[in-house]
Structures
1.
Amino acid sequence: MISETLTIVLAGGVGSRLAPLTQHRAKPAVPFGGKYRIIDFTLSNCLYSGLRRILVLTQYKSHSLHKHIRDGWSIFNPELSEYVTTVPPQQMHGEKWYGGTADAIYQNLYLLERSKAKYVVVLSGDHIYRMDYAAMLEGHINNNADLTIACMEVSKDEAKEFGVMQVDAHQQILDFAEKPDEPSELPNQPGRSLASMGVYIFKMSSLITALKGDAGREQSEHDFGKDIIPKLIANKRVFAHGFGGSQGRVSQDCYWRDVGTIDAYYQANMDLLKPVPPLDLYQEDWQIRTYEKQYPPARTVPGSSGNEGISINSITASGVVVAGACVQNSILFAKVRVEDEAMVNESVLLDRVVVGKNAQLRRCIIDKDVVIPAGTKIGFDKKTDAALFTISPDGVVVVPEGYVFEQAPSKQASRPIVSPNLNVTSERAVHAK
């Protein structure tokens, strides 16, 4: 059944609610968890589920995403009909970009038809979770379903942001509503609803028929949740597949997050720092694959003040150096440098961020290639921060990629951040001399 399955990953969304992290990159390409990109979770699920014929439909600001997939995911053998291929809009049906989730696939209908596959797995490239799609595919085939939708239980209030379904005793879906104002509740579970995860498995013939029918409707938004699924429920066999339980080979942590906002993204990163993280990244036969450059190991060293570098309950990627500073409850991506007597708390620092001497960061997301000048404080004065940066509803401050502060780093901040024999200095410090 796996060899008869084509997988399509939808990765073309704008991601405007995640700005400024999506200022120069697509949402699935946003870094996560110290070393990954968001799309790595979906692609890793495909890898371990045995799905190795994958089309990634891209669109907005896709260069970073294309590069990441090229560098990190060119691992399949095309001679065995295995591939991960990025597919930008090709204007196969008129001069337009992808106009909705269903339209994105409709515009590439010829790729589906020539694949000779019997089943199509449709996934989003911007969710954080681990799942064995093979178990869902097995259930889809056993039910002789035209469509199977992965679902999870959420609170009624949360359900307003999802597609919500009602099922019978055999898990056949009776009704589906996209982001309803008044979500239906589960029987015998007041306040709980059954929500779609945006993971679909179609019978190929049923999907092609549905897409062709939808393409001719002028009033359609060409969206799976709003247009395709409700019509299929009326006259086809559509089933729900519960997320978690005993299905599949992956350990069931039942963690799923749509990191579509700054606060959701920040909280999902912070979840990894809990004593027992709700998302298990350490299952040896289901590790998340990514592309990682070859940097030296992370380390803490004394600073020029004589203080020891300290990292407490934090994730530090390769190439990170904490020199006489304190890092606590934070995630530091590759080649981050934190200089003497600086403090970083509850923050996410992306690649190559430099935190100057005596600087203080609290509840921040600092995008890559930012140099924080000596003595700078971010996350302590909302009024001051709001004049310069984006602040989320929960008060997380986001400094955009490559931001240059008006205040130039002091001479003191230009000193090497570690002892000279380690030969590691700030690149800007070298140029300043």
2.
Amino acid sequence: MLRKSLVTSFLALGLTFAPTIAAAGEGAECVQGKLTLQTVVDKHLKAVGGKERLKAVKTLHLTTLVREGDTVTTSTVQRARPNLVRYDMDKNGTKVSKLFDGQQGWVVEGSAAPQRLDKEKSATMAEGAFFEHDALLDPKARGVALKLDGVEEVHGAPAFKLVLTRGTTTEVRFIDQSSFLEVRRTYAGTHEGKAYNKAITFSDYRDVDGIMLSHRTQWEADGKQGEKVIQSARYDAPIDATVFKPATPRS
């Protein structure tokens, strides 16, 4: 059975890789700060790298360092179209791998045999494994309602406030008025039958192969705080498809 502490680390790691629920409501007439909802979304996507570049990406390879209290987790994250993902983590010396092979989620602890994730956890991982996880690129397919709810100050600068809803989940994105990059995000919803609230801030944006990627994220969730720093990032690097297949590690 996957220990509770490991589940927590997966959730922390997934804060910036889990599927976002953004959508650009077609024909939106709402105007805030003299810009329509559609214009804010279009400018945001352009600032990140543009729709064409984002849709052209085939793979993503990351190494990260996550700190939460006294826990330090180093990770390698590999993603590939259409829905393949693998996390290899070292949490205070404990090695764990978690992956989705396109149909099923798996977890491997240390040298133990791979274990199938249960139906709910596997479904959650499947959604997160979807490569084009930002629904801004295909709003109709994600079934998300969106509204532009004014402007708020974030880190001393004005930001457009986008409120997104899908089912029982509400997500709020704050898009900086100057750079049109996302600077803060909040979530409220239910995970595995329990209500949750999370807040994330994004900073240290860098151009990685034509895409602006936040290299530092900080979060608050359930009374806990954490930080994730990207140590290296690469788009479209070759990734052997076999890494997404469960295999018992060598002792």
3.
Amino acid sequence: MEAETKKALDAGINLPLMEEFYTIQGEGYYSGHAAYFIRLGGCDVGCHWCDVKESWNATLHPLTKVEDIIERASKIAKLAVITGGEPLMYNLDYLTAELKRKGMQTNIETSGAYELSGDFDWICLSPKKAKLPVQSVYDAANELKVIIYNKHDFIFAEEQAAKVNKNALLLLQTEWGKRTEMMPLIIEYVKQNPKWKISLQTHKFLDIP
């Protein structure tokens, strides 16, 4: 990578953009809200059930000027969701500062595997066993969203709930391919452990891109 290119990447002025789109947030606390998704390429967490594995290799996604992304987002949306991939692999200070300068709310969806950068109004922490969150993200998370793929994930969820700050919302969400098998278990678990709530991938039920 050329020195100037690396400098712009390190500063977060250019970022590897996989895709950007205006849609309805389907998951978590902000489910149902109109949002502009900014999906960055690059992830080394490697969940075997990931539904966007094409995001993992950052080199497949063009380095894009953040100012261009912000210009497009701010024309049509008030809420931006930064996701990936794993967006915290990058310096997000410039991106979030400029989004806020345009009057936009900034949300992030992250595994928490890297230290926080950027100024976020809402942090959705979705921890993964392969690479656990760092403490700063546990401390700052507004919601803890644990994906339930098998029965052991309920144990993992409780382990993560013990680490996150006391004000974080606690959400359980079935992995989409396991919803028929795991949803009845999640329902019963939440009934027995009402500190948890159920998060649904409503955009998939409604067939919203």
